[in-house]
Q: What sequence folds into this?
């Protein structure tokens, strides 16, 4: 029986990108449905009534929500190819811990930078560097967070790279100057076909964020 | 080969109790190290330098932090009495609700019990409105859990699973917060299934043996956060 897969998503969402990369890594076909987040579809509200957020993966009519939960689901269902998580329990726990760290820290601090001004913005920038310095520490000398190959933590973090140009322009700072290792890691990830094909153009994201800022009265 | 399992935790924390509950369910022996959270030990800071928090599980010298990450590690390492289902969809569901409890429920519950007392606004009327909003929010969140439980004995089905353990905050600590602050949230009329579940949950041996004494916990929270929103 053929699998039916629908992904409810929003093109600049880092969380949606995670799922798109996972599906691409596994070579899975699916139907992509773009959501207008200011006018959410009845399908989205039906499939994620609790959070009303994207991404939602609908597999044979059954919804899975929350990006990292979706990625693990994909990894467990299509377990015969391109593993996204390591097999060893300790390494899996390590990967989950760092993906959880990215979830808890990176989105909020990024948002703080492009939605605030003055002192709050400066505080956001300082926090941003602390968080990315911690991530650089975890990366160490490895080519990827997953070691020799692109893994769960890499997948959870790389979508934010498509937002870097927007964040550093509106934040008025240079990310590569402060966090060269992270940028080098990101460029390495972009050599991977599935990542390169999934991540939107940084300029496009920058324009999108510019529009959002106008709407928030920041421009 | 001898195994060494350490748990760094705190007697009153639902998060560190989760780890102990899972280990007890699986019959794993461990050594518990009580942390003074106002004076964290060098060991804790060494094992969890990123968050500097409890709980931390140390298995043969290797640390695992974050209670839900630890629960999955425990389940993958010790296969007896599995706490996650085999089916990927049901696993995703359990993870979703555990995350929901941690990210949404606790902060809402705290706000409803102690929110307006903490904050800057001590003006009575404003505090009242904020309090009512917070109580309504908790009610909506608990309704989701009530609906998720359906006719099951436990969230995990016939036996206690990861989601039941993660819901220990609802199953035991919520009642403690209610009594400490005087705010009623988990009422039998509105949430009969959840109340039944909570009663069953605290009777399970591995759970019962890992609940901190109720009076001591109530006194602790009253002391720490004040007498709560209902004491006007």
A:
């Amino acid at each position: 029986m053929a699998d039916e897969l629908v992904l409810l998503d929003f093109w600049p969402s880092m969380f949606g990108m995670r799922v798109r990369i996972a599906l691409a890594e596994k070579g899975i076909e699916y139907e992509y449905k773009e959501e207008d987040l200011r006018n959410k579809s009845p399908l989205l509200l039906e499939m994620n009534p609790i959070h009303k957020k994207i991404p939602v993966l609908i597999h044979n009519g059954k919804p899975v929500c929350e990006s990292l939960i979706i990625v693990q689901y994909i990894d467990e269902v299509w377990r015969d190819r391109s593993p996204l998580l390591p097999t060893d329990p300790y390494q899996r726990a390590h990967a989950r811990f760092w993906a959880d760290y990215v979830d808890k820290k990176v989105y909020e601090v990024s948002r703080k930078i492009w939605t605030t001004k003055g002192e709050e913005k400066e505080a956001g920038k300082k926090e941003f560097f602390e968080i990315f310095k911690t991530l650089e520490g975890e990366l160490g000398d490895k080519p990827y967070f997953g070691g020799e190959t692109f893994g769960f933590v890499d997948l959870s973090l790389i979508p934010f790279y498509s937002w870097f140009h927007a964040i550093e322009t509106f934040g008025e700072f240079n990310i590569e100057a402060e966090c060269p290792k992270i940028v080098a890691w990101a460029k390495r990830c972009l050599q991977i076909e599935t990542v390169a094909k999934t991540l939107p153009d940084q300029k496009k994201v920058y324009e999108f964020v510019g529009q959002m800022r106008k709407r928030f009265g920041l421009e | 080969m001898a195994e060494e399992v350490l748990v760094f935790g705190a007697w009153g924390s639902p998060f560190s109790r989760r780890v102990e509950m899972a280990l007890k369910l699986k019959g794993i022996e461990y050594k518990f190290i009580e942390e003074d959270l106002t004076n964290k030990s060098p060991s804790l800071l060494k094992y969890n330098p990123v968050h500097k928090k409890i709980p931390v599980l140390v298995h043969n010298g290797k640390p695992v932090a974050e209670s839900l990450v630890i629960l999955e590690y425990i389940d993958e390492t010790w296969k007896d009495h599995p706490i996650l289902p085999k089916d990927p969809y049901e696993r995703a569901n359990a993870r979703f609700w555990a995350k929901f409890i941690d990210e949404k429920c606790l902060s809402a519950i705290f706000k409803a019990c102690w929110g307006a007392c903490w904050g800057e606004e001590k003006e009575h009327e404003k505090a009242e409105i904020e309090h009512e909003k917070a109580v309504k929010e908790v009610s909506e969140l608990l309704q989701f859990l009530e609906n998720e439980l359906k006719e099951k004995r436990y969230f995990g089905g016939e036996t206690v699973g990861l989601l039941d353990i993660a819901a220990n905050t609802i199953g035991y600590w919520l009642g403690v917060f209610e009594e400490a602050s005087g705010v009623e949230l988990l009422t039998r009329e509105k949430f009969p299934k959840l109340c039944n579940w909570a009663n069953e949950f605290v009777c399970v041996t591995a759970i019962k043996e890992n609940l901190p004494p109720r009076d001591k916990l109530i006194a602790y929270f009253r002391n720490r956060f004040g007498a709560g929103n209902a004491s006007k």
User: Anything to note?
Assistant: Chain A has a mean pLDDT of 96. Chain A is about 60% helix and 10% strand. The longest helix of chain A spans residues 89-115. The CA atoms of residues 98 and 104 of chain A lie 10 Å apart.
